[in-house]
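Quick start: read one record
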Amino acid sequence: MSTPSTAPILSAALATDVPRLVHDSGADTAPGVIVVHSRTTLGTTLVVHLAGEIDHFSAAPLQALLASAADDGFTGLVLDTERVTFADSGFLAVLDWWARHGRRLRLANRSRAVKRLLHAAAAATQHPAQADALTAAATS
C-alpha cells in the first residue's frame, strides 16, 4: 500500500541536480567477443573452432583472419560454431564474403544461435507464408 506524499525523499540540502538521461533503447552497444578457440589446416582447407559472440564488431578480426588465409591460398573453410552463443548479420557478411569469392564453406556443429540466424536468413528469402513458419520454428 502506498500513500501519496508531496514531501521530497531527500532534503533540499542532500538533493543534487542529476542530468537528464537520454532514453536508452535497450540495445547493447558493447562489442561482442569472438574467440578463435583453435585453428588447424587440412591441405587447402582451414578449420576454425569459434567461441563467444559474433556481431558487427567481433566479425572484423574474423574477417581479417579469413582474408589472410585466402591470401595464403586456402580455398576451403570449416567453421565449428558449437561454442558460439550469439551471431548476427556480421557473421553472415563474413560467410557471404568467403563464399562469394568461389571458396568452399562448411559450418560444423552449429550452435543454437547460429541455427537461429541461418533460419532467419533463409526465412527472409522465402515466400512470406514459409518465412513465418521458419521464423516460428527458429525461435522455439
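The longest strand covers residues 76-87.
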